[in-house]
Every structure is written in structure tokens, then in C-alpha cells.
Design a protein that fits this description.
By secondary structure, the chain is mainly beta. It has 1 helix and 10 strands. Bound molecules: zinc ion (ZN) (2 copies).
Amino acid sequence: MTPTSPPIHEGGCVCGAVRYRVQGKPALTVVCHCTFCRRRLASAFAMVAFFPHEAVEFVQGEVATHEHISDASGRWLRMNFCSRCGTTLGHSAEFRPGVRAVAVGTLDEQDWFTVDRHVWAQSKLPWVQIPEGVPTFQQAYLAP
Ligand SMILES: [Zn+2]
Ligand SMILES: [Zn+2]
């Protein structure tokens, strides 16, 4: 019997130029209601899945990176985009070494995990309702 390898899931950008693969389940999934994430994803909140760095592989296309330095902490956040269509694919952050955040909306299938926690609830939009029983933090939750 061969050992079962972790499942592979794929994702990519809107134009199809960039494709990536993730291996296994996310280490952590977060919905972030902070204003920064809302702006960078042009959305009402961000849904992010964190994977170990080595579990994410870009297999096709050219990925552009924008490095944002936080006003508050002075630490970097590197946001990844398709260099052709601009779709945000994810990011890595100085304060989370060893993990890569995948923008959940770019996965081909998004129903194989659930939300572990909501963060920055203090700035969420009033019409967004967080389901009962999901751990919720008023600000950041930085532990892995
Ligand atoms: Zn693209
Ligand atoms: Zn955020």
C-alpha cells in the first residue's frame, strides 16, 4: 500500500495566466474585516487560507509583487498579483514567517474547509453577520 499523499487543490487568476497548487489543508483560515484587507481585495472582507510556504506552488504565469510597509508596525507585507490581469492571489508577511496566505476566492473549489476565525471584528461592516460559535477577535490574532 502506498501512503496517501495530501490532496492537491488548484487555483488561479481571472485571466488564466497564473495557476497555482496547494497541498493539504490550510493551517489556518481567517476572515479579516480590517480596512486594509478590504481595500487590497476590493471587497467587504477578506477570506484568507494560510498554508506552509512549501505547500504552495506557482506552476504557471508571471506573478507580480507589491511590498507594503505597515505604518503601524514597520513590517512588510508582500502582495502577489497576476502581472497580466491584476487578480490578487495572496500574500506573505514578515510577521508570519514560513506561511503563505492564499486569497480563497482564487481557488477553483472553495468548499473543502471552513472559517477558523474572524479577526478585526471591530471594523467590520454593520451588515456583515459573524455566525455564532466561530472564534472572533476584535483586533488581530497573530499566533499561527
Ligand atoms: Zn491573470
Ligand atoms: Zn486584514
